[in-house]
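Support request, priority: normal
Reporter: lab tech (M.K.)
Component: structure prediction queue

Hi team, I submitted a job for DUF1957 domain-containing protein from Methylomonas aurea yesterday, and the status page still shows it as pending. I've pasted the exact input below so you can check whether something in the sequence is tripping the parser. The sequence length should be 528 residues. Please let me know if I need to resubmit or if it's stuck on your end.
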Amino acid sequence: MNNGYLAIVLHAHLPYVHHPEHDSFFEENWLFEAISECYLPLLAMLERLRYDRVAYRLTLSLSPTLMAMLGNPLLQNRFLRYLRGRVELAEREVERTRRLPQFHALAQHYLQLFQDNLYDYQQRYHCDLLAAFQRHHSGGRLELITTAATHGYLPLLNVNPASVRNQIGVGVASFQAQFGFTPRGFWLPECGYYPGLEQTLKAQGIDYFFLESHALLAADRRPQAGVYAPVDCGGIAAFGRDPAASHQVWSAESGYPGDGDYREYYRDIGFDLPLEYIAPYILDGETRINTGIKYYRITGGKQPKQVYQPELAKLKVQRHAEDFVASRQRQIDALAAEMQQPPIVVAPYDAELFGHWWFEGPLWLEQVLRLSAGEQSGVQTVSCADYLQLPLPRQPAVPAASSWGEHGYSEFWLNESNDWIYPLLHKAAAEMEKLASDLRGLQVSDLQRRALNQAARSLLLAQASDWPFIMKAGTTIDYARKRITDHLARFNYLHDAIRKNRIDERYLTALEIMDDIFPDIDFRTYAA
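Reply from support: The job had stalled in the queue. We restarted it manually and it finished. Here are the results:
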């Protein structure tokens, strides 16, 4: 008998990286690694569950920027080139390790993995992963939802309400254009929330969204059920993240992915082997990058890294999945004894954790879903939309401003490393709104319409939360800075060209090719 429910939510997002002006581009590898290590393994997991008729429920949020890249023919062809290169490298590794038995079996494993990825992507899915996810949604086991257009951090864009309205509206419209229906749920970028945001979501037909735990616990009226039941935010439901379920997976100290038998992410032959050997498989022949071929496990403490053993890792996967489900069952039983309605434990994670950062993650998730579907599990997986169908009361509340970033608020996206961008973003947003308002009801030429829509695209792309995040994290800072300055420069050029009626069609066409996203965008939605 089930005393409560478990909602596992995966949020799949990458920033928009599209550079047709270059033959190859380093940051495009973000997408290629995610497809190879995360999205294809997740689809393989869903196929196995479907074949075995496992009664699971899982929610997947797909960001509009990710959807645009997954559906882009140029990037699809470049990913095929990427996979073929990995197959060739793995073939060389099989030969190189022939007299190194501790590595040879792993080299063969990687060769098979890359060959399977290439076959699945090209032959099974015909390069269309979105259609593959939609088939599982149509099968009733996977719920698809979405997020803001370019994953803009909404609490810091709210200086201009039109920016928030269009981040949400364009995001929902992109999802509708891709899948043919309105998503019921919405992932707030970085779980960033401020009171009143829920009404903008509701206006787009959204039924529910997710928040960090303290958003509910510090609400204007503390919910009696804590984070284990949604609150009613004026006709739209807010679900809070469960700290315990998150800690078991996310914790750097005690989370499952840090176990010594799992594969080490940071030891890769792209950094370990001679440069002349791997040069054909990196972009410029000089800059070392991850190849996806990793021979070591995390090990433990300060010991030298030991060779990865997939069978040992699989045993740990099973043990950790059993521990997670048992922990949820104990948690739900304790909550059910205190609550007047069945509790729901909401466990949201970045999808890219599963397979990319945590190689065994998709296998762990599969076992969790299988165990939860067992007759004796005491835990039933649901989507939040399923839970809302139950005839249960919902306590009214206004959540507190919050995010799931470090320290729980906005400081990761607003600090000394990135605060310079916001006056520029707010100025551009105000100018976009004034342009749209001034032209409301007026006849514009086709060239003007294209320029206005491209200006709106440039503004949305400049507002992505990824770039200030990267600046604070200190990773590819130069690229993040360039993305913001380039998109703002494009916006400023278009704004001036439109105002002066001096639009260069050749340059506009080049911008449309480079920023090949949101084909149905309408600048008029920015009007006040």
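The beta strands are 5-12, 58-62, 142-147, 185-187, 208-211, 231-232, 237-240, 344-350, 380-381, 395-396. The chain is about 50% helix and 10% strand. Let us know if anything else looks off. Ticket resolved.
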